[in-house]
Amino acid sequence: MAVGSLRISELAELAEVPVSTLRYYERIGLLPSPDRLMNGYRVYDESAVEHLAFIARAKRMGVPLEQVSELIELWSTGGCRPLQDRIRSFLAEKITEVRDQRLELAEFERQLDGLLGRLDNSADASGLCDLDCACVHLDDGDDSMSACSRFPTVSRGEVSCSLKVDAQAERVEKWHDLIVHGQVEASGRGMRITFERSTEIAERLGRLSAEEVSCCSFFTFRTEISALGIVLHVDVPDQPEAQAMCHMVFGPLPETTSR
Prior knowledge:
single chain; 6 strands; two-stranded antiparallel ribbon; Multidrug-efflux Transporter Regulator, Chain: A, Domain 2; 4-stranded antiparallel β-sheet; alpha+beta; Alpha-Beta Plaits; globular; 11% strand
């Protein structure tokens, strides 16, 4: 295989990323636009391979894509010191962010443990559910709170999102920023997204999945974590509205054949 004349499918195979990822990198300016042959096929040279290797190393450090472009610019100028200084600054910020997230997760775990304990120890299940009920109260709690006779149910037949337009756009942007680190494949009525094993990815997936279910209850998420990586399974009802919402949130599935 000649590195100086790679087609997009060959480059994707060499870099071990989906073709859709390469097109996305080109669209946001991380990967320079390639030359095209007379038949319209994209062709890449060795610099594209080097760019993708650099992007992969930056992603493994947890650098967001919007900051990768800044690192690429410093790297391409050949100045090692400015690049080291920027990476050092990023790592210091990332360590602080991870420590803050750890504290937030520990507090959330404590609240969940408290709620679970109140539900397990509740003896009164004769009343109706209200805002003072133990089953809907996540704070430290009050031992005098009662349990309810039935838990509220969510209809999964209704396809709708409770977020306003601006909040929807922000949520979609969060998903796209995360999904670009993985490989998307069709799976049943939804999709399967595979990521490298990473504590940060696992935490972001957990938070986003929980947020998504709170406003779009028709989604079902299942996460598998193993030594091989992290796999997020997204199940969607077989309804046109639900499938359209899935494509809006997670983007269309990659094309099987590409030019």
